[in-house]
Amino acid sequence: MEMTDWLPFVIVLAGYTVLGFTGFGSALVIVPLLSWIWPLTTVVPLVLMMGVLASGHLGLRHGAKARWMELAHLAPTVLLGGVSGLYLSRAAQASAWPLALLGVYVAVVGARGMRHSHAPRPLSTAWAWPVGAVIGIIEVSFGTAGPPLVIYLSRRIADLHELRATLAVGILGTVLTSLTLLILDGRIAVLPAWPTLAGLAVAALLGVRLGDALAQRVDAERVRKAVYLLLVLSGASLLARALKS
């Protein structure tokens, strides 16, 4: 058996272990690594489909802890932003600076969060509409709406368990929205064969269960540090992706 036969399953397992532990970040691991094996036109819709499965599983397990009203405030403009992202993504392909600026901002927020132990100043709900629009645009354009979502929700929700649960449900909603819009726009490419998809689905579920189990055994401060570290890595990944393009 060649490395390319089993490596995708290891990558998906690792990516969704990260998601289970922090509530977001699977695309940060999976998309760059799988794009060495398969084209992005296959990887992005695959990650979106796996994201529905894994985030849905995590959301069902912890949905009672989620702050549903926080997500309700975001939902209208996430949808509007997603529709706008269908058109803006074509223009963004010709210019890398929006993704580069987002990467720098996310990395700076993550670095500041790791430095300071106190909770950041809460944001007003008035920010929900512009932030929701940005989340929708980014998810459809780049498939990486997790960082801005966690930046906003971490300044609205102090409890780490509630934050993880709300992130999981929020990621599920953004992924479902973007996947639906991309299907309607005819951008979904050919996916791997069904046996491979089934194996990847199993790896995704195992990963999210493993990450979730780890998060229940680690104190809240370490989970918080992991979230901010992942923001730093997310920002660096977005910046590298922009510079490469």
Written overview of the protein:
The protein is mainly α. The protein has helices at 3-22, 26-34, 40-62, 68-92, 97-115, 128-142, 146-154, 160-184, 194-217, 220-244. The chain starts with a helix and ends with a helix. It has one domain. Helix content is 79%, strand content 0%. The protein is built from ten helices and no strands.
A few lines on this structure:
Helices cover 79% and strands 0% of the residues. It is mostly helical.
Number of domains: 1
Radius of gyration: 17 Å
> How much β-strand is present in the residues?
under 5%
The residue ranges in which pLDDT falls below 50 over 5 or more consecutive positions are none
Structural class: mainly alpha
Biggest beta sheet summary: none
The backbone outline, from C-alpha atoms, is globular
N-to-C order of helices and strands:
HHHHHHHHHH
Work out the helicity level.
over 70%
Number of helical segments with 4 or more residues: 10
Total strands: the figure is 0
Mean of the pLDDT scores?
Answer: 83
> How far from one another are the termini?
33 Å
What are the SSEs and their pairings?
Elements: H1 3-22, H2 26-34, H3 40-62, H4 68-92, H5 97-115, H6 128-142, H7 146-154, H8 160-184, H9 194-217, H10 220-244
Kindly list the characteristics that best describe this protein.
single chain, 245 residues, mainly alpha, 10 helices, 0% strand
